[in-house]
Amino acid sequence: MNWSELYWQRITPLHLFLWPVSQMLVLFHAIRRALYRHKILIPARLPVPVIVIDGITTKSPVKTPLIIQLVNTLKSAGLRPGIISRGHPDNHHSPMRVSLDKPLHLTGETSLLLTYHLRDTCPVWIGYSRIETAKALLQAHQECNVLICDDGLQDLYLQRDFEAVIVDTSVINSGNGLIMPAGPLRDSFARLGQAHAVILAGHHRQMPDIGKEVRIIRVHQLKEHFFNLSQPGLTANATDLTGKRIHAVVCDPDIQNFLDNLEFLKLTVTPCIFPEDHHFAATDFQSDQAEIILITEEDAVKCLDLHDNRIWVLQQEYRADPGLRETIFKKLREKFMDPKLLDILVCPLCKGPLIYKKDHQELICKADRLAYTIRDGIPVMLEDEARKLADEEEIR
Q1: pTM for the structure as a whole
Q2: Is 312 helix (H, G, I), strand (E, B) or coil?
Q3: What single-letter DSSP state applies at residue 221?
Q4: What sections of the chain are H helices per DSSP?
């Protein structure tokens, strides 16, 4: 637990100074929302649908696995998603694509972790301006037809077609319920009433009244397992590791939670604790006694270049109720009903333009002679599901 979390869990004398600052921030956000609501400030609209996923608290373990689930859901429906983010909070750089060799102090843990899990199947871009980052991604990956912003709850300049706010009740109930910097909340609970969906995670089910207009989606934690950092396809459960000499390597803020999880899984480990900002090197793992080295996902991104087959990562997976998919696709259908959006889509194979055939609900690629169907309002941009045009079939 770091020093800020210590006073986020209670009320201390320091809150005599922090609470007024948090109220000033609440007032600032309220004024800015009013300016956008009355169209005094105009948000920037991107040519493709934008889905914003963010938490009401500063940190939730649910967000990253939820974004991975959403990417896979969109891809299975034939869409081509891309991910944009600020990256590290102090990132003031121009837009760039995240790759596994990028430094952690620039990308931030979340963006690098998403890149690691999604590999080359979904581009992840970061930059100080989310709008400019989105434009750069769409320019470099013209096949992308939907964007996911893994933060941006308070970036009202970014026009979003769907917004889901994660409420991790276990985090809220262990905090003091105040707005940053006095507490762990990014904004007041009233902000939840403006979202399209509230994703409810945690063991508790207490929530403030946000009205009946917002869809509440439950998230369930799946069984925890481990994957090998050098071979991500290689997985194991706790029973597979029982009886081995295990070292649990963890940086300071995650110590207790990580060790509690391992104890719950009935694993006997030797803890190896490092400072919060420690940069791992191969010498940190040169222990002849350890058969297995266990680390958290947050620390895994610091060890990608070590190539030690003993390193296993504890992965906590979460699964949202089907209602999230239904709610998102309803909004996407509304967006794709605009012919202007269909006109800018490109063929995922040749990146060439497509011809929209409204009568047949198809997008035609003349170069590859393929017809991509529009199924239930969603363009299915999958080669194996595209219709091959007959040689005698004319394209107009």
Answers
A1: 0.90
A2: strand
A3: E
A4: 3-8, 15-37, 63-76, 104-107, 109-118, 130-140, 169-174, 238-241, 255-264, 297-300, 323-336, 339-344
Whether residue 181 contacts residue 20, with contact meaning beta carbons closer than 8 Å, is answered with no
Q: Are strands 370-375 and 355-357 parallel, antiparallel or unpaired?
A: unpaired
CA-wise closest residue to 186 among 213, 214, 164, 165:
165
Residue 159 neighbours by CB under 8 Å, 6+ apart: 43, 44, 45, 46, 50
- Rounded Cα–Cα distance for residues 89 and 107 (Å): 9
Residue with tokens 């608290």: 57
Closest CA to 242 of 219, 262, 216, 223: 262
- In whole angstroms, what separates CA 147 from the centre of its chain? 11
List the pLDDT tens digit at each of the 396 positions of the chain. 555 666 777 888 888 888 999 999 889 988 999 999 999 999 999 999 999 999 888 777 889 999 999 999 999 999 999 999 987 776 678 899 999 888 888 888 889 999 998 987 899 999 989 999 999 999 999 999 999 998 888 889 999 999 999 988 776 555 777 888 888 888 888 888 889 999 988 765 556 666 667 888 888 888 888 999 988 889 999 889 888 899 988 886 667 778 888 888 888 888 888 887 788 888 888 776 888 999 988 888 888 888 889 999 998 888 899 899 999 999 999 999 888 888 889 999 999 999 999 888 999 999 999 999 999 899 999 989 999 998 877 776
Three-state DSSP at 189 gives helix
CA distance 323 to 49: 19
Query: Which tokens in the block code for residue 165?
Result: 């706010």
**Can you tell me which residue has the tokens 């239904």?**
326
Strands 215-221 and 197-201: parallel
d(CA 237, CA 241): 7
* Backbone phi and psi for residue 48, each to the nearest 5 degrees, phi listed first: -120, 160
The residues near 337 (Cβ < 8 Å, ≥ 6 apart) are 377
Which residues sit opposite 292 in a β-bridge?
A: 246
Place of tokens 């709610």: 327
Q: Taking the C-alpha atoms of 111, 113, 115 and 119 in order, what is their torsion angle to the nearest 10 degrees?
A: -170
Two tokens at 385? Answer: 């599901």
Among candidates 280, 288, 224, which has minimal Cα distance to 249?
Answer: 280
